[in-house]
Write a sequence for this structure.
């Protein structure tokens, strides 16, 4: 699937073949409440009635406003979120969010894409409990 441009043009979103949502913010962007709402609407529209783990590529994001951080605390179609960054600024933004807001689902910060994807795939690879006869 080709990535969709999120309303406002500050991010793209795709549902990968492996079932992981990939939300990628453009370099140098400041995420405001309207941008966060647009991203969450896109996630919910793309997923419909299903939930998926989501990789949020926030590397080189300049900042997230207080209003933007609040929006990311609202539940959406993501059931597990990996925040992927590269810089100390990315880590500060993620840690501030995680320290001040209660995420709507399990959420962790990573600097390694493979580690983030491995963590996201845990739920996808889990074998459902088998009922005893």
């Amino acid at each position: 699937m080709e990535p969709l441009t999120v309303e406002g043009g500050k991010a793209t979103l795709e549902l990968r073949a492996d079932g992981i949502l990939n939300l990628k913010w453009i370099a140098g962007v400041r995420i405001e409440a309207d941008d966060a709402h647009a991203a969450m609407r896109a996630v919910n529209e793309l997923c419909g009635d299903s939930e998926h783990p989501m990789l949020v590529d926030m590397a080189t994001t300049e900042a997230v406003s207080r209003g933007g951080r609040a929006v990311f605390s609202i539940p959406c179609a993501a059931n597990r979120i990996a925040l992927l960054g590269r810089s100390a600024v990315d880590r500060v933004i993620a840690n501030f969010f995680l320290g001040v807001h209660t995420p709507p689902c399990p959420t962790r910060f990573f600097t390694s894409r493979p580690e983030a994807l491995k963590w996201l795939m845990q739920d996808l690879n889990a074998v459902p409990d088998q009922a005893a006869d």
